[in-house]
C-alpha cells in the first residue's frame, strides 16, 4: 500500500480544492423552496408529500454542509495511521486553522473544554469548510449527551471513562436507532441529516460513525480485552493522565509503573485486533512520549497536540524571547554607543 502524502501536500491540495471549487447555480427545486416564507404548514405539506421533499433533497448539494470525503473508519480499515488535534478552546478560528493545517481529524472536547453543544456546532461548521472530520468527546456516558452530539453530525464520538463491558454496550446503544439501540430520533430536522434534506442519512449513519471508548483507569484496563471486543466499539482510546491518577501518581504521569500499565493496555488491545476484530488503538502524545513513538508502538489514531497547549507554549516562549532579547539588545546598544563616541 502506498504511503499517504506528506501533510504539506495534503494541506496544499485542501487549500487548492477550496479555492477552485466551481460555483453551481442552485437547482430549481431549491429556488422554489427558498422563495417560500418558512412556516409550519409548508413543512408539513413537504413531509406529507415525500416525492416533493425527495426531489428537493436530490437537487441540493448536501456536501456543502457535510463534505463527502473518505470516512475515518474507511481510512483506518485501509491501514492509515491518523493524526489529530484536540480543540479545547472552542475557537472557530483555531478550528479553521487546524483544518487547513492538514490534521486528519479534530476532537472538539466537550468533556474538559468550556463549551457545550452550541459552541461545538460553530466548530463543526468551520471544519466542514476545510473538509476535516470532527470527533466530539462528550462529558459522560449518557443517552442525552450522545443524542445531542450525534445530531450535530460528527464523524465520530468519544465516550470517557469506560470501565466495563456493560458501559461500552450502553455507549454503543446510545449511537443506534431502535431497534438496535435507544438513540432518540429526530433525523428529519437535525444538522446531521442536512436538516432532513439528506434522505440517505438513516441508512448510512451507523455504518460510518466511529465510536470511541476511553479506557483510562485501572478498573477499565482489567476489562480492556472484553471492552475492545464489544460489537460496535471501533476504537479504544487510552488516557495516560486519568490512568496515572487512578494509580496514585496524579503529579507523575510519566512514572515507570504508569508507563508499564499503559504499554500492557496497548498490547492487549492490539492482541484483540490481531484476532480479527475491527477495533483500533487510539491515544494521546505526552511530553516524554511523542506522537512518533505512539505510531511506532502500533497506534492507529494519535492525538499529538492540544490547541490551548500549543498557544500557551508559543506565548510563553514569545515573552521569554522578547525579554531576553531586550536585555541583550540594551547591553549591545550601550557598547555600540560607547564605541561610536570614542571614535
UniProtKB/TrEMBL annotation:
Positions of the HpcH/HpaI aldolase/citrate lyase domain: 83-313
GO cellular component: cytoplasm
Superkingdom assignment: Eukaryota
Molecular functions per Gene Ontology: aldehyde-lyase activity; metal ion binding
Bilayer-crossing regions: none
Residues covered by region (Disordered): 1-23, 323-343
Extent of the signal sequence: none
Keywords: Lyase, Metal-binding
Keyword Lyase: yes
Similarity remark: Belongs to the HpcH/HpaI aldolase family.
Name of protein: HpcH/HpaI aldolase/citrate lyase domain-containing protein
Organism: Rhynchospora breviuscula
Phylogenetic placement of the source organism: Eukaryota, Viridiplantae, Streptophyta, Embryophyta, Tracheophyta
Amino acid at each position: 500500500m502506498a504511503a499517504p502524502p506528506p501533510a504539506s501536500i495534503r494541506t496544499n491540495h485542501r487549500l487548492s480544492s477550496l479555492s477552485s471549487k466551481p460555483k453551481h447555480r442552485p437547482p430549481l427545486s431549491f429556488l422554489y423552496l427558498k422563495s417560500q416564507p418558512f412556516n409550519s404548514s409548508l413543512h408539513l405539506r413537504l413531509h406529507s408529500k415525500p416525492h416533493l421533499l425527495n426531489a428537493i433533497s436530490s437537487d441540493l448539494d448536501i456536501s456543502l454542509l457535510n463534505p463527502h470525503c473518505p470516512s475515518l473508519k474507511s481510512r483506518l480499515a485501509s491501514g492509515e495511521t491518523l493524526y489529530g488535534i484536540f480543540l479545547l478552546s472552542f475557537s472557530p478560528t483555531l478550528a479553521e486553522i487546524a483544518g487547513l493545517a492538514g490534521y486528519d481529524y479534530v476532537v472538539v472536547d466537550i468533556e474538559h473544554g468550556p463549551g457545550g453543544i452550541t459552541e461545538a456546532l460553530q466548530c463543526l461548521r468551520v471544519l466542514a469548510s476545510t473538509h476535516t472530520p470532527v470527533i466530539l468527546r462528550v462529558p459522560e456516558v449518557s443517552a442525552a449527551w450522545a443524542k445531542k452530539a450525534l445530531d450535530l453530525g460528527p464523524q465520530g464520538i468519544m465516550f470517557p471513562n469506560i470501565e466495563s463491558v456493560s458501559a461500552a454496550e450502553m455507549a454503543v446503544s446510545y449511537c443506534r436507532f431502535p431497534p438496535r439501540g435507544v438513540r432518540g430520533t429526530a433525523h428529519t430536522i437535525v444538522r446531521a441529516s442536512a436538516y432532513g434534506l439528506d434522505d440517505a442519512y438513516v441508512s448510512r449513519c451507523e455504518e460510518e460513525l466511529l465510536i470511541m471508548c476511553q479506557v483510562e483507569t485501572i478498573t477499565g484496563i482489567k476489562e480492556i480485552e472484553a471492552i475492545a471486543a464489544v460489537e460496535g466499539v471501533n476504537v479504544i482510546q487510552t488516557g495516560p493522565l486519568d490512568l496515572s491518577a487512578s494509580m496514585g501518581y496524579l503529579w507523575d504521569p510519566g512514572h515507570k509503573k504508569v508507563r508499564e500499565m499503559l504499554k500492557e493496555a496497548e498490547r492487549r488491545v492490539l492482541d484483540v485486533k490481531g484476532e480479527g476484530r475491527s477495533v483500533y488503538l487510539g491515544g494521546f502524545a505526552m511530553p516524554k512520549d511523542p506522537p512518533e513513538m505512539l505510531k511506532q508502538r502500533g497506534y492507529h489514531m494519535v492525538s499529538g497536540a492540544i490547541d490551548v497547549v500549543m498557544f500557551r507554549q508559543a506565548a510563553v516562549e514569545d515573552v521569554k524571547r522578547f525579554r531576553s532579547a531586550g536585555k541583550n539588545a540594551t547591553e549591545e546598544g550601550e557598547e555600540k554607543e560607547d564605541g561610536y563616541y570614542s571614535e
